[in-house]
Design goal:
heterodimer, A: mainly beta, Methylamine Dehydrogenase, Chain H, 29 strands, globular, B: alpha+beta, 3-stranded mixed sheet
Chain lengths: 421, 160
Amino acid sequence: MPKKLTKPRPRARFYPYLIPAFYKISSYLTVLEVIHSEKEPAYVSPRCKKLNLYSEGATTLKKLHSGVTLTLRTRASDGGSSPGLKPARGAVLGGAQRPGMERGMGTFGGCPGLLQRRQDRESVGQRSRARHQMGLQGHPGGVAPPDSIWEQTGGEFECVASLEGHENEVKSVAWNAGGNLLATCSRDKSVWIWEAQPGNEYECVSVLQGHSQDVKMVRWHPTRDLLVSASYDDTIKVWAEDGDEDDWRCVQTLSSAAQGHTSTVWGVAFDSTGDRMVSCSDDLTLKVWDTHTDPTTSMGAGAGAWKHVSTISGYHERTIFSVDWSRMNGLIASASGDDAIRIFADDEEPPSTTGQPTFSQVAKKEKAHSTDVNCVRWHPTDPRLLASASDDMCVKIWELRGRSESFPNGGSANGSKDVHL
Amino acid sequence: MAVELINPNPVIHERKSKAHRLDLPSVHGDEDAAEEFDATEIFDHIRDITDPEHPYSLEQLNVVSEEAIMVDDKGSKVGIKFTPTVQHCSMATLIGLCIRVKLLRSLPPRFKVDINVAPGSHASEAAVNKQLNDKERVAAALENPHLVDMVEKCLASSEQ
């Protein structure tokens, strides 16, 4: 692997130049999600029914690659067993600062209750333990260079608020653009909206009950107070505030009847303007939705109705767990249970027969991780950087090389589909 | 038993011999060569799981069979179709969960395991399959002490 780092094959334009020795911190954790953070003053651990918010305190984790900022969300937090961490108070990791740039921090759930859960986990975890050891001995992607080891250099995150209300584990959290609203969703089928009050108080302003099954993910529109949620019930729901009434309601449901997904929707992402949205699903497709197509309709928060404009299918072979749309260059990254990461770009010239936009794969990385890839996120300001998180306990940072400069606006990469790396 | 059984009279089948497998010395004398996973091996892992409702194994009840196991060793894929004893078997998800946990413990992590009820063998086939193959649902089920307890009881017989 180190050889590959120094001598990339000529056609390769997507290879890891940094593999953080993340297992030092996460060897007991299954990494579920990695989020580039821009300005949130607090971070959330969505693991159990309770939601803990952390502020950064004096914690600094040094030597993360310059400017790479991450917020991490994990599935299993094994209390007490991570060396150097104090999960009982909210274990920490992640983050580095580049002067003048956004900060990023991560939190691990240190919720009470995880300690008891660990026992259950252990009972089914013999194989996982073997996996941990494997991770420690040699990461499949090679050994990370020593200067990229993540290190906790003192201090710790402080839990500043706990939001209680969900009846089952919280699956996802998201801040709105203004930073005054927080949305959460859970296996209990509900979506909650919380309003930040002075003094780290959070008030629940709405409990949204529209989904008939687990809600897998929530995401806010990049500029408007428009929330989308993705669910095990195969639908995406769009939520907006209802006029002056200070109440939230579902303004649109994107279901299979509206050319939507036919199985669990695991993730959604907006493009930079918020006019388009992409969703990913267990049905092995990505779907692109547009709110521009019919400007006469208004579906709340000043946005039009969402319409299906394109389905990207025939690529991933297993559940697509995560999707992200780069704000910098319009590329779509997707992560799947087939261990691969794929990158798609908007075709400049869609077939004139339909007039609908189409998308082509411009890069793929098979075996990006040794098992399921749970999450991908583009860097908010550096168009080349992509982070991925996996059940193999690793977070990897990828650099998109070569052609990335040639389609800064999401144009097509002519004749270079299916590049093998 | 005071509880009413879902299937009070299951048909019991004979347990097939394991011998054809155990007496396989290293034919080529290459003991270090990695032996490929095949359906027989996967079947050996799950055949002796006890049915949640009856004191018989999944093999004896014909819930699992070697023929309904697909293995692609190179592609690291395993597909299992199991047949609940009755169409409305409420134990179907529990049986599937037992099979999943057993294979989680037995197979290398590179394997992707799909567990489904055999087509047409269950009234709510799609719902059962969806649940069994959603890893977050499985993880949540395994955090339920009551369920874990039941799974452990079913698996005890297969882990001797």
